[in-house]
Amino acid sequence: MKFRRFGRTGWPVGEIGYGMWGMAGWSGSQDAESLASLQRAIDLGCNFFDTAWAYGDGHSEELLGKALRANPAKKLYVATKVPPKNRQWPSKRSFTLDESYPPEYVFEYVEKSLRNIGTDTLDLIQYHTWEDKWLDDERTARTIEKLRESGKVRVIGISLNRWEPWNGIRAVKSGLLDAVQVIYNIFDQNPEDELFPACREKDVAVIARVPFDEGSLTGTLTLDSRWPKEDWRSTYFVPENLRSSVEHADALKYLVPAGSSMPEMALRFILNNPDVSTIIPGMRKIRNVEANIAASDKGPLPAVLHSELQKHRWERAPTEWSQ
Q1: Which of 32, 72, 135, 247 lies 20 to 30 Å (CA to CA) from residue 146?
Q2: Are residues 190 and 163 in contact, defined by beta-carbon separation less than 8 angstroms?
Q3: How does the average pLDDT of the chain come out, rounded?
């Protein structure tokens, strides 16, 4: 595992972090398997873990807490998120701060996360949805500063809505934030346009989420792929999206280098960008942990291949199913 600097915090974090949504929000998750996968990741050098209260109403946070207690001698960075009060993902332009993140509510959920994880301090707390217009309400800045002063949170960040990297640039430039989490992968290259330069200017850490485009960039989806009704993917991969996702992914398969795999290529594409502090693929099985962390050891892709993959940028806009 190679390490990168986490923005102005100076934290040395593994290039491959751990996204924990799948441990509580996707079908097929088993706690014993999840804990074994977390331990294997830690043994291989992974030290950045991204969870959220919304992942199983705190269950994912509880699993992370168990992993922390099993490894007391290691510095493991804990990142979690406050869910929007109205439980609406993504946020919409019309949502007010009081509907989504009133100050007293934010502090309430920081306390809940602390209890779930079993720690006195959270390394990173993030707003799980974001609207730049919330900066117009002076309570937003006051809440962020009060969180820092509380000693219960080390740094503050935001998680941006799907396919809306522009809707966080103002927050980054405000100087209030230490980290921003955004979808960035072979298809979703939009953050490179304006968001990443702003993060570079303000020395804000970048957490690249959804590196596999919810599974399409693993190359395993087909037009016959189906999920249980309670699995989030059943509402995301509606026929329209599944068809387009499979088509776009299939167009990449001929570019996979010999001896490599599509997931490895997807991760190494992101590693080519020095603006990214860490990538957080979802990992529920030990074999996936080992394969993903191995991508860090192999390093960025050759420039020629990277250039070819850049041509597969896919412009998308939020829809009713994109969440």
Answers
A1: 72
A2: yes
A3: 96
Distances (CA, A) of 234 to 87, 117, 201, 242, 250: 19, 29, 39, 10, 21
Given the DSSP bridges, would you call strands 278-279 and 11-14 parallel, antiparallel or unpaired?
Answer: unpaired
The neighbour count for residue 311, using CB atoms within 10 Å, is 9
CB 216 within 8 A of CB 237: no
Name every residue whose Cβ is closer than 8 Å to that of residue 277 and which is 6 or more positions away in sequence: 4, 5, 6, 7, 13, 179, 205, 206, 207
pLDDT surpasses 80 at 29:
no
- Give the integer Cα–Cα distance in Å for 51 and 213: 18
Average pLDDT over residues 107-122: 98
Full set of structural domains in the chain with CATH: 3-213+261-310 (3.20.20.100)
pLDDT tens digit sequence for 198-217 = 999 999 999 999 999 999 99
Q: Which two tokens stand for residue 23?
A: 């441990």
Closest to 119 (Cα-Cα) out of 47, 156, 64, 185? 64
What SS3 state is found at 265? helix
Token duo for residue 59? 């269950």
Q: Residue 118 and residue 64: Cα distance in Å, rounded?
A: 9
Rama region for 203: left / alpha / beta (φ>0; ψ in -120 to 50; rest) = left
Q: Looking at the predicted structure, is the pLDDT value of residue 30 above 90?
A: no
DSSP 152: S
Please say if the pLDDT value at position 65 is more than 80: yes
Amino acid identity, position 60: S
Question: Are the CB atoms for 104 and 147 separated by under 8 Å?
Answer: no
Q: Is the pLDDT of residue 153 over 70?
A: yes
pLDDT attached to residue 27: 61
Query: In b/e form, how buried is each residue of 49-70, taking b as 16+ CB within 10 angstroms?
Result: bbbbbbbbebbbbbbbbbbbee
Tokens read off for 49: 């873990």
Q: Three-state SS for 49? A: strand
Report the sign of the C-alpha dihedral through residues 19, 25, 29, 33, in that order.
positive
